From TrEMBL:
This is Polyisoprenoid-binding protein. It comes from the Bacteria. Residues 1-22 form the signal peptide. Keywords: Signal. It holds the Pfam family YceI. Residues 42-206 form the Lipid/polyisoprenoid-binding YceI-like domain.
Length: 208
């Protein structure tokens, strides 16, 4: 019980005082343009600058984070009516990376994400509602480890500007969600490694 209380307390610290990786809005960074500058249309995930980070409490001692990459997908939106937004993103599980190569291998194994059996995680948005001038609440279905569960993402517009390298207009968003990994059948070491998992999305898109 003492270990469990410590784990919950450490998770609370991770949500409020952990490094930038576990926060949804890096206040010391600012993007270009305004949300109202976004042109309606279809945008494709820009995989080289899109990251999905996860953060857990590790044995009640410290928050620990890793990332997924190589995302692909598309988003169709009109800033004037976010409720019509279409968003689908797929991420390969084998892209998982932490500060430990040994742990990376373990996370891909059947004990954790089981990348061989469940090679992809997918998110499909079912509802998008504006919550502020540059924020929105995205509800959708996350499929992970062969299980589909509804999740809610708090999203914030970060910036939009022409990309001088590929000559396309880019859009960036920040997102944050909290899930219980056991809801997806990933329950190894709970509660020593917290069930509650913070997901952070640094999402980059290019105009189609």
């Amino acid at each position: 019980m003492f270990v469990m209380r410590r784990a919950v307390f450490a998770l609370a610290l991770a949500l409020t005082a952990a490094p930038v990786l576990a926060q949804s809005t890096p206040d010391h960074l600012s993007g270009a343009g305004q949300a109202s500058d976004v042109t309606p249309g279809t945008y494709l995930v820009e995989p080289n600058h899109t990251q999905v980070a996860f953060s857990v409490s590790h044995m009640g001692i410290t928050p620990f984070a890793g990332t997924f990459s190589e995302a692909r997908g598309s988003m169709t939106l009109d800033p004037a009516d976010l409720s019509k937004t279409q968003l689908d993103v797929t991420i390969p599980i084998a892209s998982v990376q932490t500060t430990s190569a040994k742990l990376d291998g373990e996370l891909k194994s059947a004990d954790w994400f089981d990348a061989a059996k469940y090679p992809e995680a997918k998110f499909h948005a079912t509802d998008v509602q504006r919550t502020g001038d540059d924020t929105a609440r995205i509800t959708g279905n996350l499929t992970l480890h062969g299980v589909t569960q509804p999740i809610t993402i708090g999203a914030k517009f970060f910036g939009t500007a022409p990309n001088p390298l590929n000559k396309k207009v880019g859009i960036g968003f920040l997102g944050r969600a909290v899930i219980k990994r056991s809801d997806f059948g990933i329950d190894k070491y709970v509660p020593l490694v917290s069930d509650e998992t913070v997901l952070i999305f640094n999402a980059a898109f290019d105009a189609e």
